[in-house]
Write a structure and sequence with these properties.
Layout: H1 3-6, H2 25-34, H3 42-46, E1 52-56, H4 68-86, E2 90-94, E3 96-97, H5 101-116, H6 120-124, H7 127-155, E4 166-167, H8 171-186, E5 190-200, E6 205-207, E7 212-231, E8 247-249, H9 252-257, E9 273-278, E10 289-292, H10 299-302, E11 306-308, E12 315-320, E13 345-348, H11 354-363, H12 397-410, E14 414-427, E15 435-444, H13 449-457, E16 484-486, H14 490-499, E17 504-505, E18 507-508, E19 518-523, H15 538-560, E20 567-574, E21 577-584, H16 587-594, E22 603-604, H17 606-609, H18 612-615, E23 635-639, E24 643-644, H19 646-651, H20 653-656, H21 663-670, H22 675-682, E25 685-690, H23 695-714, E26 727-732, E27 735-738, H24 754-761, H25 763-773, E28 779-782, E29 785-787, E30 794-795, E31 799-801, E32 807-809, E33 812-814, E34 822-824, H26 826-830, E35 844-846, H27 850-869, E36 878-879, H28 888-909, H29 913-936, H30 944-961, H31 966-973, E37 983-984, E38 987-988, E39 1005-1006, H32 1013-1035, E40 1044-1047, H33 1050-1059, H34 1062-1069, E41 1071-1075, E42 1083-1088, E43 1091-1096, H35 1104-1130, H36 1132-1137, H37 1140-1167
Parallel strand pairs: 1-2, 3-4, 10-12, 16-26, 25-26, 27-28, 36-37, 40-41
Antiparallel strand pairs: 5-6, 5-15, 7-8, 7-9, 7-11, 7-14, 10-13, 11-12, 15-17, 18-24, 19-21, 19-23, 20-21, 22-23, 29-30, 29-35, 31-32, 33-34, 38-39, 40-43, 42-43
Helix pairs in contact: 4-25, 5-7, 13-14, 13-23, 14-23, 21-22, 24-25, 25-27, 25-29, 27-29, 28-29, 28-30, 28-32, 29-30, 30-31, 35-37
């Protein structure tokens, strides 16, 4: 029988002796869901009945189960959501998942290949049907992992509004994607262009700049010789010759005559050459020029000359460009690492290097693509002058590189090969080097001021570099309540990215994702023929007027078929044809193209050639299945096969999840009636909790899109791009690493499954530790241990280094208890080196860090059991903190509780989760358990005022702890309602507003009057006294139950009696009597502030040697402390620059240590 099946509600009035998380977690979670405890009501916000608090979950990819990084991110979000829900905010935490185009398709392609033996290319042979069949497989995979991810989040205790869960490709989000694309397309901010893109040769798709990760690799600088030539007469503007054309060699004698420095050092009749240096010699096949800096002293002598590419035979010009790095010996910048390797000659390959591409544009150079999409050398994609270079065709780029070097070396054209460490861009998905690749792609013009500039202007003024303004090309206004980053240093990342941003490539050559909603039309016309007599000829009126006329007809047609304003076209006149891109804003508008497919996959164009009267017949378009074949089309349209970058739909997450652009349609599609209220109630959201690695990929784009698409809703007169922020704050959560400082990953086998921790330690333990380690220093180190599958014991594994030099657990480990038994590690499995078997089971990863959380949950449970046992009798119903019935300890506990509430509120506001965790830990463990419970243990049964303090303290602590540890606190809180009521003036603990659940109870609020600094100072002195007495008892090994006598001054005796702490000293320090006379016999002395005290009756006799040894060590330690403190105060840098209160604290500490030293020395002297 499962654990869930045996779980039942804990009987009122008692708690089991032991806390077993699995006995409670499922039941508690089901109770939350049944009560709809986390459902947000936007109408309460719009009606002014509650303030809004909203968080949007960074949607996890549906590629795999959640890892510990997800657990951290979502735990921190849940803490914020629960705190604010308890504070009375109408709290929306919107859940969802991301389709993760490249990642998901890659995973499914591998799965389909393994299970069915079919590749995507096999599906592609069946055209659109094959594509749809493959997408069905991805959809099934997505459904499987979406369920798993949702269950993981629920088991972690995430208090999302699960009724509103979204998926980036569901109907609601898809509508937003189409509308956003349409608006940007219509505004001219989305366009198609042939540019050099970042190409992933494994997934065979374009990548945006921020999807490229730079990695340092060990490579070489190859110095290659290119022979110099003259060539015959060429036409104006011609930049290269076809391979095989006769070219006359340039000799060193000729260069000497031209004044080339060093030419006379070579044989005069030999053919001269120039030397280019490159890390990628294989790309020489696509060179179209050799460039040099115009300041180079050799430039004048080489003007008008050419080089002939070896083997290829292509003749290319020598050009001059300021971009070229000059050698250090010729005046190059010595600080530039490239100057050490530079020859002064740069091979220019516009088709395979972004910098060369820009040089090519400046000099109008031809662009030659020498590679296939898989990055192999190909003569089928734009390279047609192969010459004698056929030996390279079909080779991978790595193979071609080695072959080129070998061929150059064999012919004496390789001058040298120098080791060189440099950065190379890698795909963030396939982790292989990206290839600059010339391709037709779609781009968002994020460089436009309405996007880039609006994002910069959104920043809070105090986080901007150099003040409030940014030179963004438009007006700049001060944003008082702008976008703020926590920690603040990440504002610079955001700012720098936008200051250097380039247009965003949004098309991906994939099948899984939002398909680009554009149909491309190209006229099939005889020369000098227009499609219709009354249409303007672009050669006469220009494309702009033609486009205007076309869109006017398109507008009328769209209105007639019920799609008013949902179709828009961009037109070009290329090579004698009309070239038109038509974008559809909605799925209904898309049907114009999809209902009338021709056998070849193109579509009939209904609107292009029908007169308005004929179009009327198309009002009921759903009833038609095919346009009459007799109407020959003059245009054919084909839908763009690409999909949008995943981050395009993610950028719309704050809008799409709330029903934009059509909340009524979203409500009809989902059955969620209050969809129309979401956007006005919860946009902007309050905070985004995310990782630093997607500030550019996601945060940036959400800011740009939210401002751009909401500007007209917010203020019709506003400049484009000046709408609402998507969120006010961005909290950058830390990154979890293993004990060696390496990021946790599946490939390294060092990841920890959060569900494993939940099974072994409980969800509360997992959550508490994640909060405890979430500091602003960012990197969290969690040493990874193994759980032996043979014994269940935890142990530290043996580590090895993998091929990349990373420390990983050895693939096979021995059982510590029995070396004959072996196990497989996660790295062994991930690397494919070994598979688990019954004899060789898989060892689960864990971390001893989570023991802290389990111990804390156990401490809370035990403290609650003990407290509940003392609260069976009535307590004072309404307690005045100033009541004479309360002693020092009672007033101190209430004051500490108030202080903790204030400290937690500040920590939450600052996103200081580790501070929050530390505050509640100290409050419960140190203040409540170590001190207050021990003090009231003998008296609470007879003191209703103390029982009131116990009840409200437990209640308030459960509320403070609940956001971090929701399960154990909810279980304990079930018993609070069975207790006699009690309250304390100045402390508000509002009752739950739903089903008696703690998660719906009010957040504790303490009035300033509850804080009592004088009592806290007094109690701190008593703690110091009790601790000192305990240390003396420990040093002399006094039995815990042996009563001792304390010898104090008359003044201190009077103070202790007035404070009423005699019972406290008896309970906590074992003091039976307090005397004001010196001890008659043997005693141990100690200091208490400036006073010298003693305790006697420690034992029958004090061990003189042991006491002498103790005093010697004490004196040595105190001397070190005095020296260190004196040195600190003697340091001018500290005394003059440190805050005055710190300097004074150091002086006070020095005086205390000196007093303690004097007492110790005197005691030593008495020992003789």
């Amino acid at each position: 029988m499962s654990d869930a099946a045996t779980t039942q509600k804990v009987p009122a009035g008692e708690l089991p002796k032991q806390f077993r998380p699995r006995d409670h977690e499922d039941r508690v979670r089901q109770g939350w869901e049944a009560a709809r405890a986390f459902h947000a009501d936007p109408d309460r916000v719009l009606e002014g009945r509650a303030k809004p608090y909203a968080i949007l979950i960074p949607p996890p990819n549906v590629t795999a189960a959640l890892h510990l990084g997800h657990a951290l991110n979502n735990t921190l979000q849940d803490v914020l959501a629960r705190v604010h829900r308890m504070k009375g905010y109408e709290t929306l935490w919107m859940p969802g998942t991301d389709h993760a185009g490249i990642a998901t398709q890659t995973v499914v392609e591998k799965r389909v290949k393994a299970l069915e033996g079919k590749s995507r290319a096999d599906f592609a042979q069946d055209g659109e049907r094959g594509r749809a069949a493959f997408v069905e497989r991805i959809q099934a995979f997505k459904d499987e992992y979406e369920v798993r991810i949702t269950e993981q989040l629920k088991r972690m205790g995430c208090s999302c509004d699960w009724e509103r869960q979204r998926f980036t490709m569901d109907e609601v989000c898809a509508r937003a994607v189409r509308e956003a694309f349409f608006q940007l397309f219509k505004a001219g901010l989305i366009s198609r262009g042939k540019r050099l893109v970042n190409w992933d040769p494994v997934t065979q798709t374009a990548l945006a700049d921020d999807e490229v990760e730079m990695e340092e690799i060990e490579g070489f600088f190859y110095s290659l010789r290119y022979p110099l030539v003259h060539r015959g007469s060429v036409g104006a503007g011609q930049q290269s010759l076809a391979a095989g054309e006769d070219a006359m060699p340039v000799t060193w004698n000729e260069l000497a005559v031209r004044g080339y420095p060093g030419a006379d050092e070579h044989p005069g009749d030999a053919q001269a050459w120039v030397t280019v240096a490159t890390t990628r010699p294989e790309t020489y096949l696509g060179d179209t020029a050799v460039a040099m800096n115009p300041k180079d002293p050799r430039a004048k002598a080489l003007r008008g000359l050419f080089v002939e590419l070896p083997l290829v035979g292509r003749v290319i010009p020598v050009i001059e460009d300021d971009y070229v790095v000059m050698p250090e010996a010729l005046g190059g910048d010595a600080s530039d690492p490239k100057a050490q390797f530079a020859t002064g000659f740069l091979k220019v390959t516009p088709g395979h290097d972004p910098n060369d591409y820009e040089i090519g544009r400046r000099h109008e150079l031809p662009i030659i693509n020498i590679m296939a999409p898989d990055a192999s050398i190909s003569d089928q994609h734009g390279w047609n002058d192969v010459g004698n270079a056929h030996l390279f065709v079909g080779k991978s780029r790595e193979e071609a590189r080695m072959l080129v070097v070998r061929e150059f070396e064999a012919r004496g054209w390789l001058e040298r090969k120098s080791p060189y460490r440099h950065s190379v861009g890698h795909s963030y998905r396939s982790h292989v080097p990206i290839e600059p690749y010339l391709s037709d792609q779609w781009y968002v013009k994020v460089t436009d001021d309405s996007l880039r500039g609006a994002a910069l202007r959104a920043m809070a003024g105090e986080q901007r570099s150099g003040g409030d303004a940014h030179p963004t090309g438009g007006g700049v206004e001060k944003t008082e309540d702008g976008l703020r980053f926590f920690p603040e240093r990440y504002a610079k990342t955001f700012e720098t990215w936008h200051e250097n941003i380039r247009d965003w490539c949004i098309s991906r050559q994939l099948w899984w994702g939002h398909r680009i909603p554009v149909w491309s039309l190209r006229a099939e016309l005889p020369p000098d023929t227009l499609p219709f007599p009354d249409w303007p000829d672009p050669s006469d009126v220009g494309v702009s007027e033609f486009e205007t006329e076309y869109n006017e007809r398109l507008r009328k047609f769209a209105a007639l078929i019920g799609c008013a304003g949902q179709l828009y076209a961009k037109c070009e006149w290329r090579e004698g044809d009309y070239c038109i891109d038509v974008c559809a804003a909605t799925e209904e508008a898309e049907r114009v193209f999809t209902l009338y497919s021709k056998p070849d996959g193109s579509t009939w164009q209904l609107h292009a050639h029908l007169e308005p009267d004929a179009i009327v017949a198309l009002r009921r378009i759903e009833e038609m299945t095919r346009l009459n074949e007799s109407l020959d089309p003059v245009f054919s349209a084909t839908r763009d096969p690409d999909v949008l970058d995943t981050w395009f739909s993610s950028a719309l997450w704050p809008l799409s999840t709330m029903g934009w652009p059509d909340a009524d349609a979203a409500a009809n599609a989902t059955g969620i009636a209050d969809f129309p209220s979401l956007l006005p109630a919860f946009n902007p959201t309050n905070v985004l909790v995310t990782g630093r690695d997607i500030i550019t990929l996601w945060v940036s784009r959400m800011v740009m899109f939210n401002r751009w698409f909401t500007d007209q809703q917010q203020n019709p007169a506003a400049r484009q791009g000046e709408g609402r922020l998507p969120f006010h704050h961005v909290y950058i959560n830390p990154i979890i690493q293993d004990g060696h400082g390496q990021r946790m990953s599946k490939s390294l086998g060092n990841g920890v499954d959060p569900l494993d921790i939940i099974e072994s330690h409980g969800a509360d333990a997992l959550r508490y530790v994640l909060c405890q380690v979430a500091t602003s220093t960012q990197d969290i180190r969690l040493p990874v241990d193994l759980v032996c599958p043979h014994t269940g014991k935890t142990f530290s594994p043996k580590f090895i280094r993998n091929s990349q030099g990373r420390l990983v657990p050895a693939p096979i480990q021995e059982c510590p208890a029995d070396p004959t038994k072996k196990m497989v590690t996660a790295f062994g499995l991930a690397s494919g080196q070994v598979k688990p078997s019954p004899e060789l089971p898989l060892a689960r990863n864990t971390s001893a860090k989570f023991d802290i959380g389990r111990n804390f949950a156990t401490k809370l449970w035990n403290a609650a059991r003990f407290t509940l046992s003392m609260l069976t009798e009535p307590a004072t119903p309404v307690l005045d903190p100033a009541s004479p019935d309360l002693g020092v300890a009672d007033r101190w506990m209430l004051s500490r509780l108030a202080a903790a509430i204030d400290a937690v509120d500040v920590a939450v506001a600052r996103y200081e989760f580790s501070v929050y965790a530390g505050q509640v830990y100290d409050l419960l463990w140190r203040d409540f358990c170590d001190w207050y419970l021990e003090i009231v243990k003998p008296t609470a049964a007879h003191n209703p005022a103390q029982r009131a303090v116990l009840r409200v303290a437990l209640d308030a602590m459960l509320r403070l702890l609940h956001p971090i540890m929701p399960f154990v606190t909810e279980v304990i809180y079930e018993h609070i309602g069975t207790l006699p009521t009690a309250s304390v003036q100045g402390l508000s603990l509002d009752a739950p507003d739903r089903a008696g659940l703690l998660c719906r109870a009010g957040w504790p609020r303490a009035e300033a009057s509850l804080r009592d600094q004088a009592i806290e100072s007094t109690f701190a002195r008593m703690q110091e006294l009790i601790t000192a007495i305990r240390e003396v008892r420990a040093q002399h090994q006094v039995h815990p139950r042996r009563p001792i006598t304390l010898h104090v001054s008359i003044e201190l005796h009077a103070e202790l009696r007035a404070l009423g702490v005699m019972e406290m000293l008896r309970t906590l320090a074992g003091v039976e009597r307090i005397e004001t006379v010196p001890p008659a016999g043997q005693a141990a002395e100690f200091t208490f502030g400036p006073q010298r005290l003693a305790v006697s009756n420690l034992a029958d006799a004090i061990d003189a040697e042991a006491e002498k040894s103790r005093l010697e060590k004490l004196i040595a330690d105190l001397n070190k402390s005095v020296a260190a403190l004196s040195g600190r105060l003697a340091n001018p840098g500290y005394a003059q620059r440190a805050p005055a209160h710190l300097v004074q604290e150091t002086r006070d500490e020095l005086e205390r240590k000196k007093a303690e030293l004097a007492v110790a020395i005197e005691a030593m002297e008495k020992q003789g």
